Amino acid sequence: MNSSILRTRCSFLTTTVAVLLGFAGPAAIAQNAPVSVGPADPELILDLIAANRTLASYGIVDAYGHVSVRHNLDPNRFLMAGARAPALVTEADIIEYTLDGVPIDLNGRSQYSERFIHAEIYKIRPDVSSVVHNHSPSVIPFGISSVPIKPVYHMSSFIGEGLPIYDIRDESGMTDMLVNNAEKGSALATQLGDRTAVLMRGHGVAVTGESIPFAVARSIYLEINASIQLQAIGLGGSVSYLDPEEARRVLESGENRGYDRPWELWRRDALAQ
Ligand code: MN
Q1: pLDDT in tens for each of the 273 residues of the chain?
Q2: Any catalytic annotation for residue 252?
Q3: How many whole angstroms from 126 Cα to the centroid of ligand 1?
Q4: Rounded distance, CA 263 to CA 217, Å?
C-alpha cells in the first residue's frame, strides 16, 4: 500500500469516527450534552433529603443504599444524591439525571455506581415516581432461600402474593454483584415487572412507589415484615400469611392511607436533624 492511499484511508476513518461520535467542534458537544429541565420544586428536594435521613435512621440504609424521585418538571428526569451516606445528604448533593443515568451537572460530585437501578425502573414503569435501593438485613435471607417472602401483616400488603428475585448471574454471569450499567439495570427492571419491589439475590432489594412516602414506607415495612416472618418461621409451627384477597383489599382501600401519617412524622424528624 503506498503512502498516499494510506493517508486517504486514515483521513476517511478519522472523518467517519468523527461523524459517528457526532463531533463537529465544541458547539456540537454543548448541544448534545443534556441540559437541566429547570430547578425542581424545593418541597420535593426537602422530601428527598427527608427520605435519605429517614431510611438511615430506620437502619434501612447505612453508608450504602440510595433513594431517588422523578423530577416534577419532566418524567424523563430523576433526582438523586451524589455518592454519599444517606444520613449526610443535603440539598447541595442532589443531582439531576436522565433516564440513561447521565448526570446533568456533576460539578465535582461523585455518583452512585448503581444509579441504573433507578434509571431503568423509571424507563419501564411510568406509574413509579420514587425508587429505593437498600441492603436491609432481614430481607436478604429471602433473596437467597427457597422460602418466599410473603405478607405477614396488614402493613405489608404491598408484597401481594410475593416478590420476584433478580439473580444477577442469570443475565450477566460472574460479576462484582453491582447493578452498575444500563444492561444490568434493565434486567433487574424486567424482573421487577409490575410488582412493588424486587429482591436481589445476595445483595438487597429495589423498592418502588408512586411517591417518596410510598417508596420509603414500603422499604421500612418490608424490613419489618421480613423480620417478623423470620421470627414466625423460627417458632417452628405453621405460619398464617395474609390471604392474597386480604392483601388486595388493603391495597384497594388506599394502602395505609397513602402513608400520610408516618410521612408527616418521619419528614419532621428528619428535617429537624
Ligand atoms: Mn447495592
Answers
A1: 344 444 444 344 444 444 444 444 444 455 578 999 999 999 999 999 999 999 999 999 999 999 999 999 999 999 999 999 999 999 999 999 999 999 999 999 999 999 999 999 999 999 999 999 999 999 999 999 999 999 999 999 999 999 999 999 999 999 999 999 999 999 999 999 999 999 999 999 999 999 999 999 999 999 999 999 999 999 999 999 999 999 999 999 988 889 999 999 999 999 998
A2: no
A3: 23
A4: 8
Considering the candidates 43, 91, 114, 183, report the single residue annotated as catalytic.
114
Distance of CA 271 from the midpoint of ligand 1 (Å): 25
Ligand 1 center–CA 64 separation, angstroms: 7
Cβ-proximal residues to 29 (8 Å cutoff; 6+ apart), any chain: 23
- How close is the Cα of 112 to the center of ligand 1, in Å? 9
Question: Which uninterrupted H or E stretch holds 132?
Answer: strand 130-134
List helix spans (H) across 136-211: 140-144, 168-172, 182-192
Q: Look at residue 71 and give its three-state secondary structure.
A: strand
Q: How far apart are CA 65 and CA 56, in angstroms?
A: 9
